[in-house]
Amino acid sequence: MWTKEALHELIANKLHDHKLVIVANREPYIHRFAGTRIECVQPASGMALALDPIMRACDGVWIAHGSGNADRKTVDAQDHVRVPPEDPRYTLRRVWLTKEQENGYYYGLSNEGLWPLCHIVFTRPVFDPKHWQAYREVNRVFAEAVLEEAADQPTFVFIQDYHFALLPRLLKERNPNLIVAQFWHIPWPNSETFRALPWKEELLEGLLGNDLLGFHLRYHCQNFLETVNRTLEAKVDEERFEITRSGKTTAVRPFAISIDFDQHEAQARSIAVGRVMERWQRDLGLNAEFIGLGIDRIDYTKGIPERLRALDRFLEKYPAYHERFVFVQIGVPSRVHIREYKTLDDEVENLLENLNWKWSKNSWRPIIFLKQHCSRTEMMALHRLAHFCIVSSLHDGMNLVAKEYVSSRFDEDGVLILSQFTGAARELTDAVLINPFAVEEGAEAIRTALEMPESERQKRMQKMRAAVSDNNIYRWAGKVISNLLKFEFPENT
Ligand code: GDG
Asked: Is residue 493 assigned to a domain?
């Protein structure tokens, strides 16, 4: 059983002589102006929440793009700031990007190119040579920052995500003594799909600079091995999950990401959450017999229109639930500069308006849409109020919302309706699994959730909670670090 303490012990005993540098586009703490005051906020990112405790335990350096409007005001001459502000435990090093760089690297290549390419949800990727240039440039900017932080100490570098596919090779070329790992938080597509990328060879070469490359699922690892096999001259060992190219070996491994179950549950039990439950009930008029819930970034991979269509069909098929049921959808605006996201935003607004217009009766409106970011306390309060939660992603590397809903339900009640196309569906097999593209199936799943006997709800929830409690974030981090520790630094570092 992996716990916070076991991870701390592993880090204290095994990692103590080495430095740990994490690279991520997103910073774990953002400084921004609130009037004339500067406030520090933690972004709503599963990844940042997951890695923060590891950094606290080993006093490492986190390198990220300084995106807050007060970020420059709070760093020292080395662009460092100690975090968390109330109890400094590690160093955040901020990297500055121009608007053009951010636009090309982040919005462009990463989110208009690689994001749709890897998710395969019928949104066509954009491959703009200018975006690619910016992506290359920004990877080099981050490489300089990592090399400076590592200096000549024995250093583990742990890179996050698809924003930095070229970084591992750049690092190894300049400092072969670094041990470099990367975790790819989104799916890896099949080689047929990947071959559309005009710069596929360079991108794969970049990734093969890693000593260790992690994906959520074994299936994504297999897709990666196959993609390399078909694209580059390399020795691909499908037994050992290793790739060797020009004498350099990369181990490819599955590590299913998760959340801090114990901490999440403890917070969900708190008096503060209980108070917010009352507030939600009062403010949103949540006195309906049945409450459904969806929480997502507004992203076309999350299947929000598909979910609304399933709700529409449900209301059509089962009028007995009219005036007895409300669905609360939290939608956090995301990547709003990208056209597809604006189109989706309009589609969701239209569907919601039509649905509420079509089915509303007296003072009852079936859907409450809150287009906002809410606090973790508010989110947990909704988890506890909801009879079911729908996660209907068309494709999703893991999906932490599903794991969070289950972790909040210490009362062992509630039903999770979960897309079979999420990584989480491999572990949470006691959810009501759906194909989110199938409207009829979605509508039936809602009915199943509402009519499931209490004993079955309890049995399923117990099993899902046991799965998340076992495969928690400390297991993920512990497995990544244990794998990293298998690589030995050269004698002279
Ligand atoms: C990528 C992969 C993979 C959302 N709204 C609010 C809020 N959130 C939090 C959730 C959750 C996180 O954001 C979203 O994580 P997901 O895993 O669901 O999805 P992505 O953002 O697409 O993440 C995904 C993940 O990386 C980790 O590897 O699982 O497959 O796509 O933690 O709770 N948090 C708060 N307010 C909100 O309104 N506080």
From this structure: no
